[in-house]
Specification:
Elements lengths: L1 H20 L2 E6 L14 H7 L8 E3 L5 E3 L2 E6 L5 E6 L13 H12 L14 E8 L2 E6 L6 H4 L26 E7 L3 E6 L12 E6 L3 H10 L4 E2 L8 H5 L4 E16 L9 H9 L3 H9 L4 E2 L22 H10 L6 E6 L3 H16 L3 E6 L2 H10 L5 E6 L20 H12 L3 H17 L4 E13 L2 E2 L16 E2 L2
Parallel strand pairs: 1-10, 14-15, 14-16
Antiparallel strand pairs: 2-3, 4-5, 5-7, 6-7, 8-9, 9-10, 11-17, 12-16, 12-17, 13-17, 18-19
Helix pairs in contact: 7-9, 8-10, 12-13
Length: 489
């Protein structure tokens, strides 16, 4: 009887544990965010934790890439396209219990566009001339000129709404309006969120979520296989996906991302200012070899900075087709046969694995590289902010971000007045056909200027427990949106 009692107790304990697991989830991430303020940092890992979970904006992305109302339940646009009036949801509260009002919207947008702003996407707010509070739930935003993409701009993680009382602490103690509250950050290990009992919208099924940081692909495989991680939406070891696919305990989440993976070239660094040297680098690149070798076949070749799944994409891969003989000829004509370049690589496996392949391809045409493997904070400091590099590999996961080429101070230091004027025309255009024509021209300009080496569109390769539903298969923005995630019964 005593043996039977122990068995019954063990079964009961297992049952309780299983029941508890149904409202908790552990999400694996390869990179730890440098901070948790999406309005003050460029790392995609920030939004992967807080977007739609902790912080919300006036509008938001759906899983299919379309834009939905967020903290604004509706809006109207003036006839001339320069005044947007947003009608906010009433009764929304921040996690500290304070009410979210139009004053907070004004504060957040004014902060993002201020001279001292550290917002990584400050250009999203550049056209705003005034933000006026009409009443507690109505805000009027005036633009200097019409902007056909303004509603989309407000859906970015960089445009979320913060309160002035807590904004300065958002990097380590984020306080938002979302369905989950920040609970704890164990540096180097995990971030914990808990359900917000006072959320204005539909109550999420999950009681809590833990984001675990596992940088090593082998360790990521072991963690998922052992059940220590319930889902790894951006799984870093694609070579092992077949094993999960053959195991009924798991499901694969294969989709697309907004991540243009590029061999970024510092156009302001020595001989790299010569278009023929950049052209030589581009023709030395064998995209298929990189996709197969670094991504195990997952990825779509690109020839410009634009997502192939976008209806306005133009396939320009032929402009920079693999041609090592042409590369050698161009280098000789430029007097750059003995070129040695720094290649600084951030932690993601696509960069580290891809970097070794790129280095070999460049070596084959006479370009030597000095590889430095950087941690994410180092990469942001040296490459992104300091521009201290020749080459790097990174995925630009922001949606529709071709306008970064209109910023001469951006980290690859491309300065083309014609391209900047084209982006101004795009902002003013509202007719879809006109916008498509402008975007096609923009794609061709940067391809023919060989601004960067365009490698591939990053695939979304994820794996999860087969019982989980509601995770995004695609990544229209950097997010692990848990609002609709639940466990099947």
């Amino acid at each position: 009887m005593r043996y039977g009692s122990r068995v019954a107790a063990a079964i009961l304990a297992l049952g309780v544990g299983a029941a508890q697991a149904q409202d908790r989830i552990v999400i694996g991430m390869q990179l730890e965010p440098p901070n948790l303020d999406p309005t003050g940092g460029a790392a995609a890992a920030i939004d992967e934790v807080v977007y739609a979970n902790v912080f919300e904006g006036l509008t938001r992305y759906r899983s299919d890439g379309t834009i939905a109302p967020g903290l604004a339940e509706s809006w109207s646009v003036s006839d001339d396209g320069t005044v947007y009036t947003f009608h906010l949801r009433a009764g929304v509260k921040f996690h500290d219990g304070s009410e979210m009002t139009a004053d907070d919207v004004k504060f957040s947008l004014d902060r993002a566009r201020s001279d001292g702003s550290t917002n990584a996407q400050k250009s999203l707010f550049a056209g705003i001339t005034d933000v006026d509070v009409v009443d507690s739930v109505t805000v009027k935003i005036t633009l200097a000129a019409p902007n056909g993409g303004f509603i989309t701009n407000m859906a970015w993680g960089d445009a979320v709404i913060l309160a002035p009382e807590t904004a300065e602490r958002a990097a380590t103690e984020p306080v938002g309006t979302g369905p989950f509250r920040f609970s704890r950050w164990v540096q180097g290990d995990r971030i914990e969120l808990v359900r917000n009992p006072d959320y204005w919208g539909e109550r999420p099924a999950l009681e809590s979520a833990t984001f675990r940081f596992i940088s090593d692909p082998t360790a990521a495989f072991a963690a998922v296989m052992a059940g220590d991680v319930d889902a790894f939406p951006a799984y870093p070891a694609p070579e092992t996906l077949a094993q999960f696919d053959a195991d009924p305990r798991f499901q694969l989440l294969i989709g697309s991302t907004e991540g243009e993976t590029i061999l970024s070239i510092n156009n302001g660094s020595g001989s790299l200012g010569d278009v023929n040297v950049r052209r030589a680098i581009s023709h030395a690149i064998n995209r298929r070899e990189i996709i197969d070798g670094a991504m195990f076949g997952y990825g779509t070749p690109i020839g410009t900075h634009f997502a192939p799944h976008n209806p306005d994409y133009v396939d320009l891969t032929d402009i920079s087709a693999y041609d090592p003989e042409l590369s050698r000829k161009l280098l000789a004509e430029a007097g750059a046969e003995d070129l040695t370049l720094s290649l600084k690589l951030p932690p993601p496996s696509y960069a580290r694995r891809g970097g070794e392949i790129v280095a070999a391809q460049l070596r084959a045409v006479g370009i030597a590289t000095e590889i430095s493997n950087l941690e994410w904070a180092q990469w942001l400091e040296q490459v992104f902010r300091g521009k201290d590099y020749d080459l790097t590999i990174v995925s630009h996961t922001e949606p529709m971000d071709i306008n970064i080429y209109a910023r001469p101070d951006y980290y690859f230091q491309y300065d083309n007045p014609d391209f900047r004027n084209l982006m101004k025309d795009l902002d003013l255009a509202s007719d879809p056909a006109e916008r498509s024509e402008i975007l096609a021209a923009a794609q061709r300009i940067i391809a023919e200027d060989y601004v960067n080496g365009y490698l591939f569109q990053l695939a979304r390769t994820g794996v999860a427990d087969a019982r989980i539903q509601g995770l995004w298969p695609n990544a229209p923005t950097q997010a692990n949106d848990l609002t609709g995630v639940s466990w099947r019964e």
